[in-house]
Specification:
Length: 176
């Protein structure tokens, strides 16, 4: 564990999560771009993706790039790339676009597998202005240069407090 100061845990209330999810759904609907599938990015994007799937009335699928298991990311991303190349619109959903590494990795893998870039979009609840990759839809924006809070989403709040703190301390560059 790091010698960093204790992280500023910032619990997000369920009501705020629902409002943020609804704001993302409204942004998608306002633009008139309706996805054929909502894809939850495991783990943090799964719950928001379920809510968005219901709000947009489209089916939900899921992937997990963080587990580093090809069957749960690489193989599925290749299948999704083929769907987008055939005209399906895909909305990938995560809880937060912090560094942008996850979104950049998914975009890279989709492109390598031949996806149609115009058919793929990304949505998050919280978007960091300093992220290396941009999203199409967001509920709110932060600037990690000054905002060092560690957001604890409702589905994470059931975890052991020591586990939440350890996860926050595992990425000290986001807290310093």
């Amino acid at each position: 564990m790091s010698n960093a100061a204790a992280p500023q845990l910032h619990p997000i209330a369920h009501e705020d999560f629902v409002a943020d999810t609804q704001a993302v759904a409204e942004a998608v609907l306002r633009e008139g771009w309706t996805p054929d599938f909502v894809i939850g990015i495991g783990r943090g994007g799964l719950v928001p993706a379920v809510f968005l799937s219901h709000a947009l009335d489209v089916p939900m699928l899921s992937i997990d790039v963080s587990a580093q298991l090809p069957d749960f990311a690489g193989d599925l991303l290749a299948k999704l790339a083929a769907k987008s190349a055939a005209g399906a619109r895909l909305l990938f959903v995560d809880d937060i676009n912090d560094s942008g590494a996850t979104i950049a990795e998914i975009r890279r893998r989709l492109a390598e597998a031949g996806s149609e870039r115009a058919a793929v979009r990304f949505a998050v609840l919280i978007d960091n202005l300093g992220s290396q990759d941009r999203v199409d839809y967001r509920a709110r924006t932060i600037d990690r240069a000054s905002d060092k809070r560690w957001f604890v989403f409702p589905w994470e709040a059931v975890g052991a407090p020591a586990t939440i703190v350890a996860e926050a301390l595992s990425v000290p560059e986001r807290l310093a």
